[in-house]
Specification:
The protein contains seven helices and seven strands. It is α/β, with parallel strands linked by helices. The chain has a seven-stranded parallel beta sheet with strand order 1-2-3-4-5-6-7.
Length: 173
């Protein structure tokens, strides 16, 4: 966040509900005023924190009373469905070969373009194999931004890596 990241999607499959809720609460408290938090797959935690709820592509619609939600999508049909279901944003991927998703065929810029078109006007964040060098390519395909894991968390200097991604996207505006 010190590197300029303002949207955090918290996904920790290895934590039990209690530990996850504690982590989410600490993260929510650490976000800047303009920060956005979305909780992956745990509706009770999202509701308690008044955060967004992020759903996998195949999950049913969000529970009644969910203030806002996002959805992972892997193709244009899923993006159309998520738009119709009221998703506030989408995370589309895997766009390029990714260490985090070995063996998953990448959608590439063409696949991302189709997902963005199907999602319009809902903002799409591209994920999978992204870097500052690819920021222009995903923006040209229609993505609002990028979603990354390894590009920041595996960097020797995570804050600098985050700043480089934020700056690369800002230079395209």
């Amino acid at each position: 966040m010190r590197g300029g990241v303002r949207f955090v999607l918290l996904r920790e499959r290895d934590l039990d509900d209690t530990a996850f809720a504690r982590l989410a609460e600490r993260l929510a408290g650490a976000l800047p005023r303009d920060g956005i938090l979305s909780i992956h797959g745990r509706p009770a935690v999202a509701a308690a924190l008044r955060a967004g709820l992020h759903l996998p592509e195949g999950a049913p619609p969000p529970p009644a009373g969910t203030s806002w939600h996002g959805r992972s999508v892997h193709g244009s049909e899923a993006a159309s469905r998520a738009r119709r279901d009221g998703a506030a944003y989408m995370v589309a991927g895997t766009i390029f070969p990714s260490v985090g998703k070995p063996g998953v065929p990448p959608a590439g810029a063409r696949g991302l373009r189709a997902m963005c078109a199907a999602a319009r006007p809902v903002p799409v964040y591209a994920i999978g194999g992204l870097s500052t060098a690819r920021a222009g390519e995903v923006r040209a395909a229609g993505a609002h931004g990028v979603a990354v894991v390894g590009a920041i968390l595996e960097a020797d200097a995570p804050e600098a890596a985050a700043r480089a991604l934020v700056d690369a996207l800002a230079a395209l505006d």
